[in-house]
Amino acid sequence: MAGNRTFAIVKPMAVRNNNIGNILSIINQVGFRIRAMRMVRMSKEEAGRFYEAHRGKPFYENLTDFMSSTPTVAMIIEKENAVEDFRQLIGATDPDKAEDGTIRKLFGISLTANAIHGSDCDENAEREAKFFFSPDQIFEY
Ligand code: CMP
Questions:
Q1: Nearest of 132, 136, 96, 112 to residue 6 by alpha carbon
Q2: With a 6 A CB cut-off, is 63 part of the ligand 1 pocket?
Q3: Domain total of the chain
C-alpha cells in the first residue's frame, strides 16, 4: 500500500462529541476513498502496543488511558500521496498550533484529545493498518 494509502483513527473525544460524520465528510471531500473502517474500543494494553514508539515518554500513560477510554473509529484511506496529504489535512499535533481549516483545528481540544491520528510515514501506515485490519476487511470498489 506504500504511497497511496494511510491509516487514521478518530480519537475518543471527537467520537463522544458526535464529530465522526463531520470528519469523514472532510476526508471524502478532499478525495480520499475509504478502503476499510470500523469502530473499536481499544484495551489499555492494545493502546499501549499501538503507540509502542512513544512508550516511556511523559505523555504515554495519559495517551493510552485516553485512547482506551471510549470507542474510536479506525480506517484505511486512499489517495495519491496519502500520508503527506493527510497530515496536511489534519494539521499540527497541537490543535492550538494547527492551521485554520485543518481537522485538528476544527475538532481538536488538546494535545492528547487532538481529534484524529494519521500515520507519519508509509512504513507506519502499513504497520498501523495491519494492527486493526486483516486483508478481507480492506475493500476495492
Ligand atoms: P498522534 O498523532 O496520535 O501521535 C501521538 C500522540 O501523542 C499525539 O497525536 C498526541 O495526541 C499525543 N501527545 C500528547 N502529548 C504529546 C507531546 N508532548 N508531543 C507529541 N504528542 C503528544
A1: 132
A2: yes
A3: 1
